[in-house]
């Protein structure tokens, strides 16, 4: 047994110091810098426009909008858009010089056969058209030798004006709304995203473009066509930061006999992606129209012409690294389906009232009460299916 002195000489056991945890970085700081730019990409219609998405601030910010209405009786079709461009169907080369090559970045197609492919070879004697060879801001019913039409970009009027030198896209989206009677709302809808340019022109043959069914095969998401407003949002890519004028184009659209529409050198080198909608199997009664409304919304940053009288803005670095890809990654981490939306603006009771089924429901419910079948009002909607 150790003596008292020996016990005093024994070193005391030191208490273990609590292990300090390493300080965590404040992740909220990173999210706070990305969130405004992510909101600008994910909600082009309502977002607050702020500079610096592409790293620099070099011009003025603006939101532009365009509406197209499909009043044909065709049961299928599509809209395809390359929003990084602002084409006005003008001449491909320098302004004021005549040419048979036109610019285009927004295409519309309507048909009664989902397998029908738009032509891409202009032959005047056979009434064949090159893809996008005619300008139209309305859907046109397809004929035997017809092709897709080119529509002007929402920013085309602004960018082709005297005060704008060029512009670049910040964000863009398309909204598709059915405005007809709800009991006729049937068919299929496809969300088209990140479609390569070549997939449009080369559907299955050398002189035929993609059909509706072929676009459905390449769609990122499909669903039932209904009364809900559908929205597809553009995903910016590596070349979205480039400023372009109204003569920059991803396609060279032929406007002469024997010509075909092809990819431009800019389209081949930069490879911008296409997005939009495709639909098929619509139920259209005789004498009525498809009743489809499309809204095209785009946010841009534009630079004034030197001779416009507007003060030139000196390029200013807002972010040393562009926020485009980090904002898209942030959105992808939050939800894999952020770029496609179905917005229901009507409740179930209103759907019954507007579809014409409400009167039938009301009579069934009334008859049920008269017969003492109090559970019938809950089963009445099933009887209408």
> Which series of helices and strands comes N to C?
HHEEEEEEHEEHHEEEEHEEEHEHHH
User: How much beta, percentage-wise?
Assistant: 15-25%
If classified by CATH, what would the architecture of the largest domain be? Sandwich
Biggest sheet overview: 6 strands, antiparallel
Would you tell me which CATH topology of the largest domain applies?
Jelly Rolls
Strands, total number: 16
Domain tally: 2
Order of strands across the widest beta sheet? 6-5-3-13-8-9
Question: End-to-end span in angstroms?
Answer: 95 Å
Round the mean pLDDT to the nearest integer and report it.
81
Rg computed from alpha carbons, rounded to a whole number of angstroms: 29 Å
Number of helices: 10
Indicate the percent of residues in helices.
10-25%
Instruction: Using the alpha-carbon principal axes, give the shape.
Output: globular
Structural class: alpha+beta
Low-confidence stretches: 94-98, 346-362, 364-370, 372-385
CATH class of the largest domain: Mainly Beta
What's the topology here?
Layout: H1 4-9, H2 27-42, E1 56-57, E2 60-70, E3 76-81, E4 101-102, E5 106-111, E6 149-150, H3 156-159, E7 164-178, E8 188-195, H4 198-201, H5 212-217, E9 221-224, E10 229-233, E11 251-254, E12 262-263, H6 265-270, E13 274-280, E14 292-304, E15 316-317, H7 324-334, E16 340-343, H8 348-355, H9 358-370, H10 376-383
Antiparallel strand pairs: 1-15, 2-14, 3-5, 3-13, 4-11, 5-6, 7-10, 7-14, 8-9, 8-13, 10-16, 11-12
Helix pairs in contact: 2-7, 9-10
């Amino acid at each position: 047994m150790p003596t008292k002195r020996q016990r005093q000489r024994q070193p005391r056991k030191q208490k273990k110091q609590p292990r300090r945890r390493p300080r965590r970085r404040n992740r909220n700081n990173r999210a706070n810098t990305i969130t405004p730019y992510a909101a600008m990409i994910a909600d082009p219609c309502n977002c607050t426009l702020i500079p610096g998405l592409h790293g620099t601030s070099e011009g003025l910010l603006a939101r532009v909008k365009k509406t197209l209405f499909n009043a044909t009786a065709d049961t299928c079709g599509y809209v395809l858009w390359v929003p990084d461009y602002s084409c006005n169907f003008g001449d491909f080369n320098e302004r004021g010089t005549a040419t048979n090559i036109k610019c285009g970045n927004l295409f519309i197609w309507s048909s009664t056969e989902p397998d029908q492919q738009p032509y891409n070879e202009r032959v005047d004697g056979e009434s064949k058209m090159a893809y996008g060879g005619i300008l139209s801001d309305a859907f046109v019913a397809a004929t035997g030798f017809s092709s897709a039409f080119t529509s002007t970009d929402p920013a085309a009027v602004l960018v082709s004006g005297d005060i704008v030198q060029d512009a670049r896209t910040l964000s863009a989206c398309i909204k598709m709304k059915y405005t007809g009677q709800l009991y006729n709302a049937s068919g299929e809808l496809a969300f088209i995203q990140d479609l390569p340019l070549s997939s449009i022109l080369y559907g299955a043959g050398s002189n035929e473009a993609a059909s509706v069914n072929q676009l459905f095969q390449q769609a990122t998401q499909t669903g039932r066509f209904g009364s809900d407003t559908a929205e597809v949002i553009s995903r910016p890519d590596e070349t979205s930061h480039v400023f372009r004028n109204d003569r920059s184009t991803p396609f060279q659209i032929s406007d002469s006999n024997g010509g075909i529409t092809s990819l431009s050198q800019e389209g081949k080198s930069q490879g911008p992606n296409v997005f939009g909608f495709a639909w098929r199997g619509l139920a259209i009664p005789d004498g009525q129209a498809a009743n489809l409304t499309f809204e095209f919304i785009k946010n841009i940053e534009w630079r004034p012409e030197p001779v416009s009288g507007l003060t030139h803005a000196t390029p200013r670095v807002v972010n040393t690294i562009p926020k485009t890809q980090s904002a898209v990654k942030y959105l992808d981490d939050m939800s894999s389906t952020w770029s496609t939306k179905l917005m229901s603006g009507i409740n179930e009771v209103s759907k019954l009232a507007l579809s014409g089924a409400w009167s039938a429901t009301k009579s069934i419910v009334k008859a049920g009460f008269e017969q003492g079948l109090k559970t019938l009002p809950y089963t009445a909607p099933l009887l209408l299916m």
